[in-house]
Amino acid sequence: MAQHLNFEALLERAAPPKELPAPTLALSHLDTLWLQVTGTLCNLACLHCFISCGPKNHNHEMMTLESVQDALNWARDHGVKEFYFTGGEPFMHPQIKEMILAALEHGPLNILTNGILIDESMAAWLGEVFRTSRYNLDLRVSLDGTTPEENDAIRGRKTYEKIFGGIDRLWAHGVNPVITVTTCHADLAAEDGRRRFYEVVRARGLSQPRLKFLSPFKIGREEHRAGGYEAHERLVEGDLIPGQEDALQCSSCRMVTAKGVYPCPILIEVDEALMGASLDDALVDIKLDHPACYTCHVEGVTCRT
Amino acid sequence: MPNLTDTTIAVFGGVYNNYLSLEATLAHARQSGASALYCLGDLGGFGPHPDRSIAQLRDQHDIHVMQGNYDHSLGNRLGDCACGYTDPRDNYFAQLSYDYTFANTSEHHKDWLRDLPTGFRHRWAGKEVLMAHGSPRRINEFLWESTTPDGFLEHLLASRNIDALFITHTGIPWMRRLDSGRLVVNVGAIGRPANNGLTTVDYVLVELQGDTLDASLQAIPYDHERLASEMRAEGLPEEFVETVLTGYWTTCTEVLPARERARGKY
Ligand code: SF4
Ligand code: SF4
Q1: What is the CATH number of the domain that holds A168?
Q2: For a tag on chain B, would you pick the N or C end, based on fewer CB atoms within 10 A?
């Protein structure tokens, strides 16, 4: 698990921070293409959202169907392995169905959603697409507690039941979503916390529970909720162990939004992280100079399923 | 590189200590006229008596064995199989079978596992052929049928100048001829059924004729009831025995994509 940590370098840096430059990271191959299909627009405004998404955040607008198709065609020609749709809330997009079908023509698709807008007819449609598409369709639904109190404190009033409503409908139509838990409550990440989640999901009738646990990033709205990064929480040259760079998802991913291309799904509100207007501009090395990079490295976080 | 043609070759992987299905596979391959047999790794885990399958594979003039991630862990005496599941239940079962395999594999067999090669490259029927455990890029990369797109495979093979790629690691077989004519074959596993409700196990026969290379999946029956009773006698968990008897995976299902998982029961 912690194999990729260079403990010696980390220990040395427990001493007063030195003025070392941030490490650079090359793109080994673009395996994972993220598409911010609904920009920063979301039907919720969760307290821990690391990109401050919400009903009124137009920082990144929705992508057009054409721009999504352009990115998918580029990806096919460049040997991309998988696609991720995220937002905001992807199911707010009026053309989400067309986008889903377009992606699945070229490769497997993961959709990150809060599940609330997946009504009966959408769940039935997704079930049909799941069974008939050439490549795998995976849904990832976010839930942040094993009880309404725990979850709703972060995701908003009554969201626990609404989210589970979406999960139940998907399951009833043959789609088994991955339930994603952001471990804001530290005990959720520990073995007991994880076991509790598996039990709650099984008890709900999902006999094949799939879960993913993600550490929170201390940026966006989460920064206001739980505080930001300390000055020493930064990566500097020497922190990455040569040969183990691929532990970081940005060695093999890029994120496309209506504004352009970013290294990863985490930094889309960091203006300096914008790499250019097109994917061709984004195949160059990146600088891991953002404090969020520290979380990726130390916690071994990847946004992939 | 010399060119080999007009013969039959067997390719298999994922033995998982199942020495009975290994015996059946080797017999089937030799009866089918295989002049060479390639094992793509992962000899341990799951089944009983690890030394028995290793003994069948070592020092055979016609068998070539590659190292899988499990073999790497055992050979280097690591503490676990490095699968790192999220579900504590999966980790429990993974550790249990690793500890059993570790305790029951002789030291000289571990040394042999440690020193195995990690890939084979050949010229067959005029084609560039690569065999790898997970993928040509990484020993532990999963190439599932439903999550491995054509565009990616074309790129992967073209960038390494490969016409035909053989892999294992996932435990579920599939085969695809790409638009370019390139061939990708996941040979599945012979140690455990493919989560499809059948008790047979899978491997691949490759036919070389002139300048054509064709592959076909083979489903092999074996005495799975005997394996089940030997697993019980060894104290291996009933969950593993159920897989042998039903053809459905019961543990460590987390790695399965939704599509491949939906075919199973757990
Ligand atoms: S965490 Fe997800 S559901 Fe919540 S506001 Fe952010 S994008 Fe929306
Ligand atoms: S935040 Fe994480 S994924 Fe993004 S550039 Fe930094 S290390 Fe890479």
Answers
A1: 3.20.20.70
A2: N
Other C-beta atoms closer than 10 Å to the C-beta of B93 total 19
- Cα A16 to ligand 2 centre (Å): 24
Render pLDDT for B194-237 as a digit per residue (tens, 0 to 9). Answer: 999 999 999 999 999 999 999 999 999 999 999 999 999 999 99
Length of chain B: 266
Q: Residue B176: how many CA atoms within 13 Å on its side-chain side?
A: 21
Q: How many domains does chain A divide into?
A: 1
Asked if residue A188 is part of any domain, the answer here is: yes
Strand, coil or helix: what is B153? helix
Shortest Cα distance, chain A CAs vs residue B210, angstroms: 31
Atom of ligand 2 nearest to the CA of A290: 6
Query: Taking the alpha carbons of A218, A221, A223, A226 in that order, is the dihedral positive or negative?
Result: negative
Pairs across A and B, CB distance < 8 A: 80
**Cis peptide bond prior to B171, omega within 30° of 0:** no
* One-letter-per-residue 3-state SS of A252-289: CEEEEECCEEECCCCCCCCHHHCCECCHHHHCCCEECC
| Residue A5 maps to a domain | no
For the stretch B26-68, pLDDT in tens is 999 999 999 999 999 999 999 999 999 999 999 899 999 999 9
Distance B103 CA to ligand 1 centre (A): 48
| DSSP state, residue B171 | S
Q: How far is CA A6 from CA A239, B73, B165, in A?
A: 6, 21, 35
Per-residue pLDDT of chain A (305 residues; tens, 9 = 90+): 344 556 566 555 554 455 789 999 999 999 999 999 999 999 999 998 988 899 999 999 999 999 999 999 999 999 999 999 999 999 999 999 999 999 999 999 999 999 999 999 999 999 999 999 999 999 999 999 899 998 999 999 999 999 999 999 999 999 999 999 988 766 667 788 888 999 999 999 998 889 988 888 888 888 888 888 988 889 998 888 887 788 899 999 999 999 999 999 999 999 999 999 999 999 999 999 999 999 888 888 888 88
CB proximity B266 to A under 8 Å: yes
Ligand nearest to the CA of A229: 2
> Strand B212-220 relative to strand B3-4: parallel, antiparallel, unpaired?
unpaired
What are the backbone angles phi and psi of residue B42, rounded to the nearest 5°?
Answer: 70, 70
Domain housing A83 = 28-229+242-288
Q: Please name each of the domains of chain B with its CATH number.
A: 3-262 (3.60.21.10)
Q: Which two tokens stand for residue A59?
A: 């920082």
Any atom of ligand 1 within 6 Å of the Cβ of A138: no
- A305 contacts: CB under 8 Å, gap ≥ 6: A110, A138, A140, A178, A212
Closest to A10 in 3D by CA, of A18, A289, A227: A18
Going by CA atoms, what residue is nearest to atom 6 of ligand 1?
A49
Which of B151, B254, B260 minimises the CB distance to A79? B151
A96 to chain B, any CB pair closer than 8 A? The answer is: no
Sheet strands (E) in A56-193: 82-86, 109-113, 137-142, 178-182
User: Is A148 inside a domain boundary?
Assistant: yes
* pTM for this entry: 0.92
